[in-house]
Amino acid sequence: MLTEAGFVDVKIGPAVDTFGGASGESNARAFEVYGYPFIAKKP
Amino acid sequence: MTKNSSLDINELREQVKDKYKEVATTPDGEFHFHTGRVVAARCGYKEEEYDSLPDNAVESFAGVANPFALRDVQTGETVVDLGSGAGFDCFVAAKKVGPEGRVIGIDMTDEMLDKAQATANEMEMDQVEFKKGFIEELPFKDSEVDVVISNGVINLSPEKHKTFEEIYRVLKPGGYLQFADIANSKPAPQAAVDDIDLWTA
Lengths: 43, 201
What we know:
The complex is a heterodimer of chains A (43) and B (201). Helix content of chain A is 23%, strand content 33%. Chain A has 43 residues and is α+β, with helices and mostly antiparallel strands. In chain B, strands 3-2-1-4-5 form a five-stranded parallel sheet. Chain B is an alpha/beta fold and 201 residues long. Chain B is globular. In chain B, helix 1 packs across helix 6. Chain B has helices at 9-25, 36-42, 47-51, 55-58, 88-97, 110-123, 160-170, 190-193, 196-200, and strands at residues 78-82, 102-107, 128-132, 145-151, 171-184. In chain B, strand 1, helix 5 and strand 2 (102-107) form a beta-alpha-beta unit. The A-B interface holds A 1-2, 4-7, 11, 13-14, 16-24, 27, 30-43 and B 30-34, 39, 42-44, 63-71, 152, 160-161, 164-165, 167-168, 171-188, 198, 201.
């Protein structure tokens, strides 16, 4: 989606176990959901 | 979201507003995600970044990672935060851009906007302001801002293509989108995608 919008140099950082220990942890584990930092540049 | 999705966009917006109204007014309540200093530490923010902020600025924070992890914003930049909530990332950004920079938070939830603006006033951060709006329709001119940040919000938009196109429009050439959000390694079935309760539960 980012490149389709025109962005370049798209990078993704390391995963964060955002939901670990929270009540939403079971849903997060079921679909392997983690938080990530993203960066993209407008040329 | 697929083209065949039956999701009602307006209903989703109302449910998201209701959920984040709760996070604004009762940040110690029961949510499916962590809030406050706990999640700020989990996301990898430096301790001095959140310890230096008052409780009102941190307690309703519900981010999912650190939008400054891959690039720090710079002194003097104009930064827009999509779905700014109670302002945590705006206040972190404001310290980085300094008084010559500008930070504008956009949110659709009145309770979050009120809380964020009150905290900005309390901290005397004149470079920070908050505006009501939707992330799919940003109140900025073309090529007006240096950096767009967001944290755990774009995943809640049922119109992600439109959101990214709008971000692209408002960024200056050479500007950055740096955001944090959730992603799943295992695909969610269409029934789950169409279940509004799972977007906000």
